[in-house]
């Protein structure tokens, strides 16, 4: 969980993020054609009007005049920062219009953390939790604004469904997005998502019947060890709602998908990436 003991001592070093990606992560082993596609992606900082103000975000799309399906990417609790720009760029190179917002725009423009971040630092952690608290009540309005912004882009193929994916706190935000825009969201990807199953009436798993999406729910092994029942609840919820989906515990710890994090696991991250692309190929039709 993003706010659990699993993250005590979690350190993300932005200084090594790009080097990590090039040497052992998102860029390693890619073909020359794939690297060329990434380098040709168009990237633009944008501002998006929401019910609560103006969100800063970054938009990516492939070069050229074609139209592509759109994807919204919710970052983890450290927010929009260089590594999520890199991830958005790579996804766009696969043939998607990609929006990565700053979820904490109500509190601060991105990046909201300067330099490396240590989750074991109580002061820094509580500051991020404050940003998240300010975001919580406006998530559905934000989600609708972000989907509408993507649909308004000339590069977006509005005949195709929209995908949404999230990491850590972005997992439940992705569920909430699918429920807020059920006619547009066709696929949900959650990677080491925190708080997908709770005992509260607004638990994200209870939103599944309100959506029209297919799901990929990738669970961290340490999160599963702490809440082993959660994966079974998710499986039952998908089955009961007759939604297609996969719930899988990965052999990696919370944060494994994000280069630069202490838990980054290149092999598991690449597996999750391939599964995500397969989901989008099936569901964003």
TrEMBL record:
Keywords: Hydrolase. Gene3D superfamilies: alpha/beta hydrolase (3.40.50.1820). The keyword ATP-binding does not apply. Residues 56-282 form the Dienelactone hydrolase domain. GO terms for molecular function: hydrolase activity. It holds the Pfam family DLH. InterPro entries: AB_hydrolase_fold, Dienelactn_hydro, Dienelactone_hydrolase-like. The keyword Hydrolase applies. PANTHER family: CARBOXYMETHYLENEBUTENOLIDASE HOMOLOG, CARBOXYMETHYLENEBUTENOLIDASE-RELATED. This is Dienelactone hydrolase family protein. It comes from Sphingomonas piscis.
């Amino acid at each position: 969980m993003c706010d659990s003991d699993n993250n005590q001592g979690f350190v993300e070093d932005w200084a090594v993020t790009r080097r990590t990606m090039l040497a052992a992560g998102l860029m390693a082993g890619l073909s020359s054609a794939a690297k060329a596609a990434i380098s040709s992606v168009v990237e633009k900082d944008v501002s998006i009007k929401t019910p609560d103000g103006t969100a800063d975000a970054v938009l990516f799309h492939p070069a050229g005049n074609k139209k592509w399906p759109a994807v919204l990417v919710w970052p983890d609790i450290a927010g929009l920062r260089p590594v999520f720009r890199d991830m958005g760029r790579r996804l766009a190179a696969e043939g998607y219009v990609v929006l990565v917002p700053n979820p904490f725009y109500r509190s601060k423009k991105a990046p909201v953390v300067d330099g490396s971040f240590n989750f074991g630092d109580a002061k820094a952690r509580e500051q991020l939790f404050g940003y998240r608290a300010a975001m919580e009540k406006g998530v559905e309005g934000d989600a609708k604004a972000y989907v509408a912004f993507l649909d308004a882009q000339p590069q977006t193929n509005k005949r195709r469904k929209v995908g949404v994916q999230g990491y850590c706190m972005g997992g439940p935000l992705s569920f909430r997005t699918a429920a807020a825009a059920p006619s547009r969201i066709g696929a949900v990807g959650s990677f080491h998502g925190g708080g997908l199953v709770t005992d509260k009436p607004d638990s994200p798993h209870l939103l599944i019947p309100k959506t029209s999406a297919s799901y990929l729910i990738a669970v961290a092994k340490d999160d599963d060890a702490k809440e082993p029942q959660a994966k079974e609840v998710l499986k039952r919820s998908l089955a009961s709602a007759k939604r297609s989906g996969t719930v899988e515990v990965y052999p990696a710890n919370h944060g494994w998908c994000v280069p630069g994090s202490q838990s980054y696991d290149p092999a598991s991250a690449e597996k999750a990436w391939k599964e995500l692309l397969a989901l989008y190929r099936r569901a964003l039709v």
